[in-house]
Write a structure and sequence with these properties.
Blueprint: H1 3-21, H2 35-45, H3 53-61, E1 67-71, H4 77-82, E2 88-93, H5 96-109, E3 114-118, E4 129-135, H6 144-153, E5 155-164, H7 169-180, H8 190-200, E6 205-212, H9 220-230, H10 237-250, E7 252-254, E8 257-259, E9 264-272, H11 275-279
Parallel strand pairs: 1-2, 1-4, 2-3, 4-5
Antiparallel strand pairs: 5-9, 6-9, 7-8
Helix pairs in contact: 1-8, 6-8, 9-10
Length: 283
């Protein structure tokens, strides 16, 4: 089995699992990221980018004349942080709700060089950029080979793909098994991404880093709502009560908020120079 075929099988099985638990959610696309989820996500990530290893790595790669392509930009965590440092940012995301949050914040900050583009990466047509960033998006993509080949072709200087270095399911595995009676179907890993890139003709570099935990909740009720969604549980009083009791004994207090009991989590920065640049030809 090829690396891209293995990737597709893993993603399909995982999305099918979600679809069985909550019909209509298996696509995890624009419909999933509605206005309420977009606002919660923006509040959760907040200003965490300043301590993010990928942001520091990309910041060192760009300059005032650089253009950046942010694929799966969401509410603009990287796009807005990079905007003051570069000439132009193209922020691509399939969720209009997420990009509305990004656009409002860009206007508030006076970041007029951020250009939101609604659509999946597979369907949009955008100008190439010097540097591309794709953060925690790839494991949801069935056709990783096509996705990465297009990202490579749209990048002039260096491409960055951000993924967990350890499955995030490990952190909530006990909760998932408690409610569903089985482990989650596995997600593709950064090693799978490196193998797919090799099929595209790319030899990637990998840097393992520690990422501060981003999940912070102002109240236990907010945590219950977030974890009910994460664990794909029905919105029923009995489920909420049970989850409330479990989270009350598991989450820890940190500067007036609640977070999981790990302060940081391993991540992988997968990066490469695009093929056209390596070949020395025009891009």
């Amino acid at each position: 089995m090829t690396a891209s075929a293995r990737w597709r099988r893993l993603v399909r099985a995982r999305l099918a699992e979600i679809e069985r638990l909550e019909p209509g959610r298996g696509t995890v696309g624009a419909q999933y990221w509605n206005a309420a989820r977009a606002r919660r996500y923006a509040a959760q990530v907040g200003t965490t980018v300043k301590d993010d290893p990928l942001f520091r790595r990309v910041r060192a790669e760009v300059g005032r004349d650089s253009s950046v392509l942010d694929v799966g930009a969401g509410t603009g965590r990287f796009s807005l942080a990079l905007a003051p440092r570069v000439r132009h940012v193209t922020a691509v995301d399939p969720s209009p709700a997420m990009l509305r949050v990004l656009d409002r914040e860009a206007r508030r900050l006076g970041a007029h060089n951020v250009h939101p583009v609604v659509g999946t990466w597979e369907e949009v047509e955008v100008a190439p950029a010097d540097v591309s960033v794709c953060s925690y998006v790839l494991p949801l993509i069935e056709d990783a080979r096509g996705f990465l080949a297009k990202l490579d072709a749209a990048t002039g200087q260096r491409a960055f793909v951000y993924m967990n270095a350890a499955s995030a399911d490990l952190l909530v595995d006990a909760l998932w098994r408690h409610f569903h009676g089985r482990p989650r179907r596995p997600s593709p890993t950064y090693l799978d991404a490196v193998a797919v890139l090799a099929e595209v003709g790319v030899t990637a570099e990998v840097e393992a880093v520690e990422v501060p935990t981003r999940s912070h909740f102002p109240t236990l009720a907010a945590a219950v709502k977030a974890y009910r969604d994460l664990l794909v549980l029905p919105d029923a009083p009995a489920v909420r009560r049970e989850l409330h009791a479990l989270l009350a004994s598991w989450l820890v207090e940190d500067h007036g908020a609640l977070r999981p009991p790990l302060r940081s989590w391993p991540a992988a920065i997968v990066s490469w120079r695009p093929r056209a640049t390596r070949a020395g030809g025009p891009h």
